[in-house]
Amino acid sequence: MTIVMPPQARAALTAACAVHLPGDPGYDAARTPWNLTVDQRPAAVAEPADAAEVAAVVRAARAVGLRVAPQSTGHNATPLAARGLDDAVLVRLGRLRGVEVDPVRRVARVLGGTPAIDVVEAAARHGLAVLHGSSPDVGFAGLALGGGAFLYSRALGLTANSLAAVDLVTPDGDLRRVSATEHPDLFWAVRGGGGSFGVATAVEARLFPLADVHAGLMVWDVSRAREVLRAWARWAPGAPDEVTTTVRLLRVPPLPDVPEMLRGRHVVVLDGAVLDTDERAGDLLAPLRALDPEVDTFARVPAAAVARLHMDPEGPSPSVSASATLSALPDEAVDALLAAVDRTPGLMMVELRQLGGALSRAADGAGALATLPGQFLLFAVAIAPTPQDATRGRGEAACVVTALAPWETGRHYLAFAESAVDPRTGFDAHAWERLLAVRAAVDAERRLAANHPIA
User: CA of 121: how far to CAs of 127, 128, 304, 305, in Å?
Assistant: First the structure.
């Protein structure tokens, strides 16, 4: 139920920045996240233009007894909405957009509402690369604070642990710069701990000297799925850190902008990147090429092209999903997965991401999410344009995860947990206790609302 906004509260919030309240003409558009299945109904939606306005709206919300829920794009808005926002101001950060690259220091300063593709392209102009995810239009700051794992991760680690500093408005409305030398406990917590500690108005991310990489994809008909998945699952755990891949069982929609050879088909798609020479990449990929893919595009490409290699949808989209981390993928697990896929025709995609490598080792100075457990990350997705589709899709995605339960690690990667799971499952016991202590120090009154709150 949406609360009625008292006049004094309305006045306080609207004095801080642009604010939309229930019943206002712009409220529905402002509250709508990227994931269109999510119906989030906050007490108000704030759209600050800069860090000063973020601080002002946080102070105003505190003064009138409302919580604050930061959100950039809303790719993973489901758990936030599920926990309730009728006593919260949703702070949408889309107007804070911009990137400044220091090519000498190899650092990008990224404003809090900037999509990842902007950072990728800005870095590429200097022959550099950032640790981005698979979605070009996900908010980079939100990606980084939640973890961030894609095709450079086995070599270079999580995006969170590439951060050099964060500009953070804490629940008292104070704007702080946090880094290894400034508020170091808070800096540790925000890197992987998510949005429970403040509103990130900017992040500084380290860049890497990658002007081009060996990357691409391979495609097989789904009739080859058992053979391909078994071979990949045997190959992946022993692959060196320099290679990161994903494999998807993909039901390609029959749309005119889809290549004709894929249109309307059910296929196996492997994509990946190798941070090594072309010759070395060829040797590493040889066991996969021996499976005789229909399509093989692996080659030397500009690093910026990797941001769209996974073909994630750009622009708002309605979807539901479920995920798990897996300790292994033996032949019987592959069989269980394929049997579950046969029972779930409404799923558009079932994906396995290769973990291990740098993701399994805590780097010096790492944040709260120092590692990702297991060998594989499982992710099942359904497109859900109607509530009925969403209900069916959640059930089918859960069916796939349940089928792989014997091989689960018991830990969630919260950035892929699009339901209100127990956030303790995202961290080891020591990290969780430390996160609780940092949260108690910075937000004892629990004024911040987050997708997966530290509480």
Answer: 10, 9, 6, 9
DSSP for 52-116 reads: HHHHHHHHHHHHTT-EEEEESS-TT-HHHHHT--TTEEEEE-TT---EEEETTTTEEEEETT-BH
- Name the average pLDDT for the chain: 96
Please check whether residue 21 is in contact with residue 10, taking contact to mean a CB–CB distance below 8 angstroms.
Answer: yes
**CA-CA distance, 58 to 67, in Å (whole number)?**
8
178, exposed or middle or buried, with CB in 10 Å at 0-12, 13-18, 19+? buried
Work out the angle at residue 143's Cα, subtended by the Cα atoms of residues 137 and 148, and round it to the nearest 5 degrees.
115
pLDDT over threshold 90, residue 136: yes
**Once rounded to an integer, what is the mean pLDDT over residues 213-236?**
98
Closest Cα to residue 259, out of 216, 295, 300? 295
Rg over alpha carbons for the chain, rounded to the nearest Å, is 22
Single out the residue of 242, 246, 238 nearest to residue 218, CA to CA: 246
- pLDDT exceeds 90 at position 331: yes
Which token pair is 446?
């629990």
Structure tokens at 186: 């808070």
pTM equals 0.96
The predicted pLDDT at position 3 comes to 59
User: What does the buried/exposed string (b/e) look like for 103-131 if buried means 16 or more CB atoms within 10 Å of the residue's CB?
Assistant: eeebbbbbbbbbbbbbbbebbbebebbbb
Distance CA 101, CA 110 (A): 9
Cα 401 versus chain centre, distance: 19
Nearest to 319 by CA among 381, 254, 395, 399: 381
Whether 413 shows a pLDDT value over 90: the answer reads yes
How many beta carbons lie within 10 A of that of residue 283, not counting itself?
A: 12
Rounded to an integer, what distance in angstroms lies between the CA atom of residue 64 and that of residue 197?
20
Token digits of residue 334: 């592959």
- The whole-angstrom distance between residue 50's C-alpha and the CA centroid of its chain comes to 23
Q: Please identify which residue in the block is written with the tokens 């045997």.
A: 234
Element (H, E) at 433: helix 429-442
Q: Which domains does the chain have, with CATH numbers?
A: 7-92 (3.30.43.10), 99-209 (3.30.465.10), 212-416 (3.40.462.20)
Distance CA 61, CA 58 (A): 5
pLDDT at 190 over 80: yes
